[in-house]
Amino acid sequence: MIEITESWIDSIAPNSSAVKNGHDLVKKGKFTELHLSNDQQVLFGSCAGSGKTPYSPSADFVVPEKPVMRCNCPSRQIPCKHVLGLLYAYAGGENFTAAEMPEDLAAKREKAEKREEKKAKEAAAGTAPKPKKVNKSALKKKIMAQLEGLDVLEKLTHSLIRRGLGTLDAKELKNIQDHVKQMGSYYLNGAQIQLRKLQMILASRGDKEDTYTAATEQLGVIHAFIKKGRAHLKAKLEDPELALDHESTIEEWLGHAWQLSELKDAGLSSSEAELIQLSFNSYDDPSRQEFVDCGYWMQMDSGEIHYTVQYRPYKAAKLMREEDSFFDAACVPALYRYPGDLNRRVRFESFSTRPVEEQDIARIRKYAASSYAEVVKMVKNQLKNPLGDQSPVMLIHADRIVSDEEGRLFIADAHGETLELKDLTEDSTVQLLKFLPDDSLRDTAVLVMFDHGLASGRLRVQPLSIVTGREIIRLLY
């Protein structure tokens, strides 16, 4: 039987309420039977419900990275609270007696195995389903519409610049908002997001100088998007295959949603990867009109810092499971990487878990960059691309964390180079360092997020996690 941890169970729960309800079923003794199949691959049992007939939750781990979870309750959540309770009972050390697998579960497993065998035979015989063909005519029409949309966007931005940001009134802000809607008709989701961000900046009631500085920076991003987007789309039209760009992020900016099959065909996948999450944050992004769940992970064989992200649109947020912090090591059979630069977005469909051990912590610390000069050079190269991630994350070694006479905090490397710590997100982490013991602030590794202050012209750094010799201390989770 694979190792089942509470952290892994939390990660597959549809929401926090389901987690609580699953724990409550165990605490209240609602499980009248708890069994483990003789082959030690299936957990099953009986759980008292609101009616006379108990529910029958089960979890089949015949394929460990893709467990099949079933229950005869009416809930539409998968897994339901009864399955979660069953798993929590097992992880918590409840007594599971050995028993023969129920006939209905054995029959369902047999059908599933036959389906997998059929797929394997088809793949071996070369009769696997052919890749989905691209409707080139429709794609060309879409590209032409996108080019037209970029022209409309360019006319708007030129008009705003000619008039001057200081002269904008409510009518002009309404015009920007109308153009946000128009961008959707031109299949330019990225333009919608960036234009909405500009509208929000100009509509804010903060300091005028700060507002105009932020608006100028945002107009620069939109200009770069128009220029690079137009060049990319025109080059794509000249390509007989209308191929996707697998190197840069321009496809996502233009609204393309990458499929895992596309990433695999582009050679952007690898097998048997281990990831450990170093930081996690959920936040509201009004410019996207979505809630964002973002986790930063280290790939243990390379030391690369990747990120996973889930977007939950406002209208569908209640129907989607919110991601959460993950504290175990994730053993991923297939890891898919998106085109990108310093931090790649990654996805994986399934995973198994194991506890994070002392040697994992030591390995993470070895990957920490020791020279701030080299780190700053890498970050600046990333920030030169207006369409690149403007908040790159890196793991760096801190010889010590110190403060000056004004109370400002700095991290220093062994060469005496320092980086000032600033809060970049809405969640403050810098001040939390004052509550950590001194030995956690010396000879340690720090996961940091970089940002460039346009007004000051200096890099700003926010600590996300501290990796000591014993543990990962999350400042943002």
UniProtKB/TrEMBL annotation:
Keywords: Metal-binding, Zinc, Zinc-finger. Residues 108-122 have a biased composition (Basic and acidic residues). Residues 61-91 form the SWIM-type domain. GO terms for molecular function: zinc ion binding. The keyword Protease does not apply. Residues 108-135 are annotated as: Disordered. The keyword Zinc-finger applies. Signal peptide: none annotated. This is SWIM-type domain-containing protein. InterPro entries: Znf_SWIM.
